[in-house]
Amino acid sequence: MGKPADDGSVGSFVLFLDENHCGNSYLRAVLTSADVAFESHLNHFSAGTDDTEWLPKVGQMGWCLLTTDKRIRKRPLERAAVKENAVRMFYFANNDASGQQMGETLRRALPEMQRLALEQPPPFTASINRAGEVKVRDIF
Questions:
Q1: Kind and range of the H or E element at 137?
Q2: pLDDT in tens, 43-65
């Protein structure tokens, strides 16, 4: 875990690293060096926990999801969980990048992610491209 998470209110910025990213040392290093609080999937859930089980907690805690699973936007049950639990979801648009490349992309994207998370009411989804540009995709 990075710096201790604050109260998780929507006015805060705490990233929740999904199961596929919570072990990415490059992402964790970027967040630590930027003094950004984060939570790791495996600190709260077992490996393989269904998305519909952990998405509600992400929203209830006020955390911002970081994932590469853009299919969450399209699957009815996951989409409903994002909407009903006011999840602020950021996803890497390209999931074929190395861990190091994702870390660099995140470093470039963080300022815009933080701004968006604080200014755009949840729920929403936003993509992060390789250049680190953040674009809102869905507003519910």
A1: strand 134-139
A2: 999 999 999 999 999 999 999 99
